[in-house]
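How a chain folds remains the central question behind the approach discussed here. For one protein, we set the task of working out the C-alpha cells from the amino acid sequence alone. The sequence in question and its C-alpha cells are set out directly beneath this paragraph.

_____
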Amino acid sequence: MKIKKENKMLTGKQKQYLKGIASKFPAVVQIGKNGIEESVIESIFNALKARELIKVKINQNSVEDINNTAKFLSEKLSCELVQVIGRNCILFNQKKEKSHYELP
C-alpha cells in the first residue's frame, strides 16, 4: 500500500460539488465494533484508488468517534475529508491522470 504525501485543500465550491455526487452513493466501507484495523484502512485505500470518491459508515456498535475517525483516515491516507454527516464520512482522493471528476 503506497500512500501519497501531498494533500491539497478543496474549496467550498468543490466540496459542495462532491457532496452532491456522493449523496447518491452507498457506503463502500463500514467500520464495526472492532474499530479501525489495518484491513479496514487497506480496504478504504483500495476503494479510494479505484473510485476516488467514497462514503465510509461507522456503525452504531463501533467504539470509534466519527469526527476523530474521519480526521484520522484523511491524514493516514492523505485524502480529503469532504464531509461528516451523521455516522458517515465522505473521502476524496483525485487521481492525477484520468480522473472521473472534473472539479469546478
